[in-house]
């Protein structure tokens, strides 16, 4: 009985938050069924949630069909937490125009369009600015470019510092306007590091005696480890210039989740994504 009570308390107070692209799925791809099944087993022990920069429709498309994502996860934070769901219910949705006001928003969009119009790149495609609820997603090469074209731009950006110079120009132009600008990065885990390694201790129920030895391909609780999505190195997934309000989901509403998470263990590196940066209100 004590073990069951402790398990219930753990489920109530512990929240495991997962990134989407590059963690639960390859960039912009569907979740592997084995990973989805593993997450539901984890959910029987703790609360689980996802957070991503994409809008809700893109996250829902990657993690299920229809609205399965808000049924299969206790918390869903889309657009960097500006759109929040808890237990299948929309908590709040913040819009960038409410934060910036229409005049400043248009000044920002017009400046970005003028700046990108003067850039000479090997290739330019379409969808340079994508307007979402809580952010502007801006890409100087265009979000409709192919993976190969994104890689080409990423290699050029390493030499020419295109995004870095764009950030500097934005910071100069909009100094004192309550905006923060930074580039978007993609985390790349070490070759032999699995995302599941950081949550293994949470999967082990509190028992008086040590649990039996688990098979080599299982975690400490005997649950089979899901296959890790392919590491995106040297190929970066999609990159962008994003505009987001500067706050963390844990403090975004009175019904925010417990401020507890499981951090992935092991070495990691940061690699720039092939487009640009993020700008957020502070």
Automatic annotation (TrEMBL):
EC number: 5.4.2.8
Name of the top EC class for this enzyme: isomerase
Gene3D superfamilies: HAD superfamily/HAD-like
Keyword entries, A-Z: Cytoplasm, Isomerase, Magnesium, Metal-binding
UniProt keyword Nuclease present: no
Amino acids binding Mg(2+): 19, 21
InterPro entries: HAD-like_sf, HAD-SF_hydro_IIB, HAD_sf, PMM
Region (Disordered): 204-267
Cofactor(s) required, per the database record: Mg(2+)
Molecular function as annotated in GO: metal ion binding; phosphomannomutase activity
Residues given in the record as alpha-D-mannose 1-phosphate binding sites: 28, 132, 143, 150
Biological process according to GO: cellular response to leukemia inhibitory factor; GDP-mannose biosynthetic process; mannose metabolic process; protein N-linked glycosylation
GO-annotated cellular components: cytosol; neuronal cell body
Subcellular location(s) per record: Cytoplasm
Residues forming coiled coils: none
Highest taxon in the source lineage: Eukaryota
Any Pfam family matching the protein: PMM
Ranges of biased composition (kind: Pro residues): 204-214
Catalysed reactions listed for this entry: alpha-D-mannose 1-phosphate = D-mannose 6-phosphate
NCBIfam families documented for this protein: HAD-SF-IIB (TIGR01484)
Family indicated by similarity: Belongs to the eukaryotic PMM family.
Function: Involved in the synthesis of the GDP-mannose and dolichol-phosphate-mannose required for a number of critical mannosyl transfer reactions.
Database matches in PANTHER family: PHOSPHOMANNOMUTASE, PHOSPHOMANNOMUTASE 1
The protein's name in its UniProt record: Phosphomannomutase
Lineage: Eukaryota, Metazoa, Chordata, Craniata, Vertebrata
Gene: PMM1
């Amino acid at each position: 009985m004590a073990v069951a009570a402790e398990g219930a308390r753990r489920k109530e107070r512990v929240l495991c938050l997962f990134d989407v692209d590059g963690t639960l799925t390859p960039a912009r791809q569907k979740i592997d069924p084995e990973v989805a099944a593993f997450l539901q087993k984890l959910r029987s022990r703790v609360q689980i949630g996802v957070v991503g920069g994409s809008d809700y429709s893109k996250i829902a498309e990657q993690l299920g069909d229809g609205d399965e994502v808000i049924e299969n996860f206790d918390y869903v934070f889309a657009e960097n937490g500006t759109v929040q769901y808890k237990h299948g219910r929309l908590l709040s949705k913040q819009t960038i125009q409410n934060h910036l006001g229409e005049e400043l928003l248009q000044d920002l969009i017009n400046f970005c369009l003028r700046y990108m119009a003067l850039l000479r790149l090997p290739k330019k495609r379409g969808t340079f600015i994508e307007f979402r609820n809580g952010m502007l997603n801006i890409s100087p090469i265009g979000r409709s470019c192919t993976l190969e074209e994104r890689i080409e731009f990423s290699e050029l950006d390493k030499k020419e510092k295109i995004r870095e110079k764009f950030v500097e120009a934005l910071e100069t132009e909009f100094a004192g306007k309550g905006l923060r600008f930074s580039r978007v990065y993609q985390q790349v885990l070490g070759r032999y590091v699995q995302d599941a390694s950081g949550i293994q201790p949470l999967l082990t129920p509190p028992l008086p005696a040590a649990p039996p030895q688990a098979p080599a391909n299982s975690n400490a609780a005997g649950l089979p480890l899901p296959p890790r999505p392919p590491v995106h190195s040297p190929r970066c997934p999609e990159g962008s210039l994003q505009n987001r309000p500067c706050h963390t989901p844990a403090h975004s509403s009175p019904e925010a989740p417990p401020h507890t998470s499981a951090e992935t263990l092991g070495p990691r590196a940061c690699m720039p994504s092939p487009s640009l940066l993020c700008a957020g209100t502070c």
